[in-house]
Amino acid sequence: LIAFPTDTVYGLAAQVNNPDSIGRIYEVKSRDMLKAIPVLIGSKDQIPLVASTISSSAYKLIDCFWPGALTIIVGRHPNLPKNLSTLQTIGIRMPANPFTVKLLKHTGPLAVTSANISGRENPQTAMDVTLQLGGTIDLILDGGATPGNIPSTVVDCTSEPIKILRQGRISSSDIQSVL
């Protein structure tokens, strides 16, 4: 497991195709196993590696807001481990952090969630990660402070009309203006 800065907060990551490492994320964070773990990608070319179906609305949002603080819910690729998401859907995002995008282009898609113990404050620095997760993870990449504690907006694009599940950095009016 590694922690690194994103365009929102520090993330805790595992290989997207490694169920044992994904299981460690749940363990280290004390995360409810029923909560899916989102996937971060480094390029649009990686979408077919994690998504089985993607709507035209999803593509419109991707073209407008990626890279950026928008997580879209799409049909989950059947080859992804079951413990990544108990649902037939998965959240995917391409962050707007140049270092993170470069990392994801090199590693491929990663299962990533905030690098904190569930329910505690989201980490904005490597020291925040160290204080919460300490020796329970393998590596912390210190990229300085992240921009803040505003999460990504989450949009379910698996049906029409789309549904905004969590309001974050991108407003619902911005989302609707694209569609």
Task: Walk me through this protein's architecture.
There is one protein chain. With 179 residues, the protein is an alpha/beta fold. The protein is built from six helices and ten strands. It has helices at 19-29, 47-50, 56-65, 98-107, 126-133, 172-178; strands at 2-5, 10-15, 39-40, 51-53, 70-76, 89-93, 110-114, 139-140, 153-156, 163-166. Strands 1, 2, 3, 4, 5, 6, 7, 8, 9 and 10 form a ten-stranded mixed beta sheet that branches. The radius of gyration is 15 Å and the shape is globular.
List its salient traits.
single chain, 179 residues, 10 strands, ten-stranded mixed β-sheet, alpha/beta, 28% helix
Outline:
With 179 residues, the protein is α/β, with parallel strands linked by helices. The chain is built from six helices and ten strands, in the order E-E-H-E-H-E-H-E-E-H-E-H-E-E-E-H.
* N to C succession of SSEs: EEHEHEHEEHEHEEEH
Number of strands: 10
| Global structural class | alpha/beta
Number of helices: 6
Radius of gyration: 15 Å
Coarse morphology: globular
Poorly predicted residue ranges: none
**For the terminal residues, how far apart are their CA atoms?**
37 Å
| pLDDT averaged over residues | 95
Helix content: 25-40%
Biggest sheet details:
10 strands, mixed
Strand share of the residues?
15-25%
